[in-house]
Amino acid sequence: MKISQFFEQDHQRVESVINGFRHSLEVGVPDKAFFDQLIQGLHRHIYWEEDLLFPLVKPLADGEVIDEFCTDHALIWKNLGELEAGLSQGTPGGKLELTLNEMVEVLEAHNIDEERTIYAQADQLCDGLAADEFLGKVQGADAPSGWHCVVSWY
Fold it and tell me: Which of 6, 9, 60, 100 could form a disulfide with 121 if both were Cys (CB 3.0 to 4.6 A apart)?
């Protein structure tokens, strides 16, 4: 499997979880299980990119582009924190939806940009066995307890 395929499939998985969580908000019963999947999945995905993928593509990538992706990650992380706080405080679903929509707007543009740049560069650097080895490392990696994205102004 190509590195780009793996990360694009994870984008699709996260999108599916977002849709499930959004639906629960629309019907007025926020689904904590969907949210838990969402926060865990996005935290893991951001960890994979910042600690594993970005260092891999650094020789080919524009440093400013990577910085922009890290800034997007911080915005997404902030939105997840706001959603988590809102859920625990019983914030009305409409307010949670606004935060979710804000995050999704950033995430959709972010994913398209990554798929066009960083993921394509990763495929150029690693194919075949090298890609399989890298993806094995990614699939076995979870963010350590207390880890947070590189940009932490949130």
Answer: 60
Helix (H, G, I), strand (E, B) or coil at 64: helix
SS3 94: helix
Place of tokens 């694009």: 8
- d(CA 85, CA 89) in angstroms, rounded, equals 6
**C-alpha closest to that of 20 among 108, 139, 100, 110:** 100
Least Cα distance to 144 among 42, 47, 54 occurs for: 47
**Per-residue model confidence (pLDDT) at position 153:** 54
Lowest pLDDT segment from 13-22, 54-63, 101-110? 54-63
Of 45-49, 57-61, 85-89, 110-114, least confident by mean pLDDT is 57-61
8-state DSSP, 150? S
Q: Whole-angstrom Cα distance, residue 54 to residue 111? A: 14
The closest of 73, 90, 95, 76 to 32, measured between CA atoms, is 90
- In this predicted structure, the answer to whether residue 114 has a pLDDT above a threshold of 90 is yes
Domains of the chain (ranges; CATH) run 3-139 (1.20.120)
pTM of the model: 0.94
